[in-house]
Amino acid sequence: MGTFKYYLNKFKWIIIASFVSIIIIIVAATLIVKNHKVDVEDDVKVDFSGYNKSGSAEITDDSYEKVINQLSVRALKQANFKNKEVIEMIEDNNGEEIEEEDLNYEEQQQARQAAQIMDNVDFDIHNENDLKNGDKVKVKLDIEKGISKDYKLKAKEFTKEFKVKGLKEPKNLKAKDLFEGLKPTFSGLNGSGALNLISKDGPKAMKDLPLSNYEFTVPNNGDLNNGDELELKIPQSLVDDINKSGSNTFSGSKSYKVKVQGLKDISKLDNITETLERNNKLIKKAYDSDKYIKYNTENLANYYKVQYGTSGYSGFSDENEEKQSEKVSPVSEIEPTDITLATAIKVTKTGEYSDPDVKYSYEGYENYKLEDNRLVKDDTTEEISMPSSEEKLDELNNELDSDDFKKIQ
Fold first, then answer.
1. Cα 187 to Cα 249, 314, 337, distances in angstroms
2. What's the mean pLDDT in 377-391?
3. Phi/psi of residue 119, each to 5°?
4. With bands split at pLDDT 50, 70 and 90, how would you rate the model's confidence at 291?
5. Which residues form the domain of 13?
6. Which of 226, 259, 292 is the last residue of a domain?
7. Which of 163, 187, 213 finishes a domain?
8. Claim to verify: residue 30 and residue 47 sit in the same structural domain
9. Taking Cα atoms as reference points, which of 215, 189, 236 lies closest to residue 325?
10. If pLDDT is split at 50, 70 and 90, which confidence band does 9 have?
11. Does 203 lie in the same domain as 71?
């Protein structure tokens, strides 16, 4: 016992100093932990996508969630939030499962303070668009300046650069690529043919462009003959949009030549003879003689007119219609071609007590469908006749011409 007291008296200051040192270390460690700034810079990852000169960058979903979760945990601890279960859920990326009503009042207040702390944090990527390989993008973590320390997140601010790589090279398109993809197709009759552009199986490289919104100029469209050579021109607006798309560029001439082919000759249709015979029956019905009035009819010529699709196209009767007809937009499929057949006639009417009266008119049917090499009559096919007869043959010819009828040779 005496020995113990001896050593206690001899070394008491050393023992006291040791205890004080331990207390200081504990306090210092506590302060260091409490004031430690969380460092998330190494956790940031960036992905690059798109095409060279128009690429984009974004923080990966996994790294963004990891960074935000770490910052959120730090904010909660600064707010003296001590619910370990909740903190572990956030660290495990299960924060969306946390319900506010599961927290007590004090924890709710602390969580709200943590949310206010996070409101003063800006974590984002910069210069992330219109990128080319070799460019640099920056990811920044900034804490708002000049705010109360109670609402200032203890996190290390940083600016981290990433070098752009892996962007694909855009595909270069020429007029040939575009038009071969749009498959120029001709419909109608020889002498009244029209060009169609089909967008259904258009160029894969242009699948994101609404091709039906663009108008291509087709000279004399609606009056085309087999063997005609057309010079098609790509609208400048489409060229501009191709170059802006990022995935493609356009170069070379905007013109492309295509030869008209595949139009049917109306005089060589499989059933043209029997179809025109219907007109004769219609004429006979319209001018049926009785005991008081005698009609004599003479067929002068047969005529046809072409209508494309449901747009009511019926030739080019004025300058504005002609300009519009030359504008062709790509379509997903070609609509039916409607054909009108009319027979011009000379009608001599003789009454019982009157001299012969000569008039000129026509009778026929509209809306035959051109299918393969035949004219098909359906429920849209209707009778037509001239509204009022003309007294002179020239007047009839002018009427037919103005209504865009063409003579069957």
1. 32, 14, 7
2. 90
3. -65, -20
4. confident
5. 1-35
6. 259
7. 163
8. no
9. 215
10. low
11. no
Q: pLDDT of 15-57, one tens digit each? A: 555 555 555 544 444 444 455 799 999 999 999 999 999 999 9
Q: How far is CA 377 from CA 6, 282, 315, 338, 339, in A?
A: 129, 15, 21, 10, 10
Q: CA geometry: angle at 351 spanning 350 and 352, to 5°? A: 125
Per the CB < 8 A criterion, the answer to whether 306 and 264 are in contact is: no
| pLDDT digit string, tens, across residues 157-207 | 999 999 999 999 999 999 998 888 888 999 999 999 999 998 876 666 677
Burial 156-183 (b: 16+ CB within 10 A, else e): eebeeebebeebeebeebebebbbebbe
Q: What is the pLDDT of residues 309-337, one digit of tens each?
A: 643 333 333 444 444 468 899 988 888 89
Question: Cα(248)–Cα(35) distance, rounded to whole angstroms?
Answer: 53
Beta carbons of 51 and 246 less than 8 angstroms apart: yes
Largest separation between any pair of C-alpha atoms in the chain: 168
My answer on whether 48 and 31 are in the same domain is no
C-alpha neighbours within 13 Å on the C-beta side of residue 66: 12
Say whether both 155 and 281 belong to one domain: no
Co-location of 183 and 100 in the same domain? no
- DSSP letters, 127-145, are S-SSB-TT-EEEEEEEE-S
The strand pairing partners of 142, in sequence order, are: 122
- pTM, two decimal places: 0.67
Rounded Cα distance, 361 and 355, in Å = 19
